[in-house]
Write a structure and sequence with these properties.
single chain, alpha+beta, D-Maltodextrin-Binding Protein, domain 2, 2 domains, 43% helix
Length: 450
């Protein structure tokens, strides 16, 4: 832990020196960010996304056609789209004083951490100047401590993939709105003929921790193991509700794939679903590109999509874990206005031009969304086996919860909760003892990091 802190401190000092060297006075910066009408500006765009996944050539060409005075110099940080490799290269580029204007972050943790280092600039003044509400314009919350440092690109909400043939055999309809209790009932009803009704891919080794906060993630806010002010959230009854659901489904209903099998057989959600070993999986909508089957995972049944379950019938619903690309303006940029112009265009009409992902932009028309879904599914082997109406319904109504900035010691918390869960599911302790032990151990971690 100390080594991590020293590394972070050294990087922060390096970055501060670069920041000091690159930034001029406020008036100079404003002047440089507002060039003369005919002046051409080149902005550098650092991204983890490769050409195959993001279609950059035609996307950037469309932007430059609309804004001929702004040229975008693309810097792909990982040709294989490896976000970890890209983040390391981005940090090195920042520390060495390279020109940076637009930055793309792939997850909340790397985004929040680099905002705290000053790598991204607040963009509130541009938003106010344009006169829109981010919460109304986009489905993903990107606010940190009351300020906006990015706009969201793609929109990958979590959902439930269902084997429609298994649904039909159990006499069940495709759910358009349901609770966790109903999810458990569906899984129990579909557990027959040698397959399970549900498969949960986590937790595993401190990863896939979404499966430890199922009920928490159905809420509009306060969805993490820590609160916005860095306190433990394990006394939240929805953490207990998740544990109760997992135990009930595996031990009582015997409707979910046993945790021991997941670990010992190194099971994967794709195999479980496409081989029809499990009737349903909770997963992110990055699976859109595979729903109709692929060479590796052919589709031999019909697929439907259901929304992420909510906690109570009376709840608003639609809230779900969401992954996105955080599009930010670099703190050292001398062309902040132009950089903002690019991220605003890219996160709106640029997403439609790109045609690779569902946009976070809430103003996408129904026909544009249907066209994007058609284009995505057309890349699969059997798009006709996918219930497109259910997919579009889920994507239209899904929304992200209020973002909770990750803590720097998040991985330690994940490890502890994973360990205590294993004691529970292996029958070594009950739910109350699991919660108590998790609370005590997580509190120790929080206290040691104050």
């Amino acid at each position: 832990m100390k080594k991590k802190l020293w590394s972070l401190l050294i990087f922060t000092m390096l970055f501060s020196l670069v920041l000091a060297g690159c930034s001029g006075s406020g008036s100079e910066e404003k002047a440089s960010s507002e060039p003369k009408k005919d002046e051409k500006v080149t902005i550098k765009f650092h991204t983890h996304g490769n050409e195959a996944s993001y279609n950059w050539k035609s996307t950037i060409a469309a932007f430059e056609e609309k804004y001929p005075n702004i040229k975008v110099d693309l810097v792909i940080l990982s040709e294989k789209g490896d976000t970890q490799e890209a983040t390391k290269k981005l940090d090195l580029a920042a520390a060495s004083g390279e020109q940076m204007d637009v930055l793309m972050f792939s997850d909340p943790a790397s985004y929040a951490q680099r905002v705290s280092m000053g790598m991204a600039a607040p963009i509130d003044e541009f938003i106010e100047e344009e006169g829109y509400e981010v919460a109304e314009e986009y489905k993903v919350d990107t606010q940190i401590d009351g300020k906006y440092y990015s706009l969201p690109g793609k929109f990958n909400p979590w959902y439930v993939l269902l084997n429609k043939d298994h649904l039909d055999a159990a006499g069940l309809e495709v759910p358009k709105d349901w609770t966790w209790d109903e999810f458990a009932e569906y899984a129990k009803a579909m557990t027959r003929d040698g397959h399970y009704g549900a498969y949960f891919h986590g937790p595993q080794g401190g990863g896939w921790m979404e499966f430890m906060k199922l009920a928490l993630a159905s809420e509009a806010e306060n969805t993490e193991f820590t609160t916005a002010d860095g306190k433990s959230n394990l006394n939240n009854p929805l953490f207990k509700k998740t544990l109760e659901l997992r135990v009930k489904m595996e031990k009582e209903d015997k409707s979910s794939v046993p945790y021991t099998d997941i670990l010992s057989q190194k099971l994967h959600y794709r195999n479980q679903f496409f081989n029809q070993d499990a009737s349903s999986i909770l997963i992110g909508s990055w699976m859109n590109t595979e729903l109709g089957g692929t060479e590796q995972f052919p589709l031999g049944f019909n697929v439907a999509v259901a929304p992420y379950p909510k906690n109570e019938k009376s709840d608003e619903g639609g809230y779900t874990p969401v992954t996105t690309d955080f599009m930010a303006v670099a703190g050292t940029s001398e062309h902040k206005k132009e950089a903002y112009t690019f991220i605003r265009w890219y996160t709106t009409e640029g997403q439609i031009v790109q045609g690779k992902n569902i946009p976070s932009w809430s103003k996408v028309s129904e026909s544009d969304l249907a066209d994007i879904v058609d284009k995505i599914l057309s890349g699969t082997k059997n798009p006709e086996k996918v219930d497109k109406e259910s997919l579009i319904n889920v994507l239209t109504n899904a929304k992200s919860s209020k973002m909770v900035s990750p803590v720097s010691y998040q991985a330690e918390i994940y490890k502890v909760i994973n360990e205590e869960y294993e004691k529970l599911i292996f029958g070594e302790q009950d739910i109350d003892k699991t919660i108590k032990a998790s609370q005590e151990r997580v509190q120790e971690i929080i206290d040691s990091n104050k």
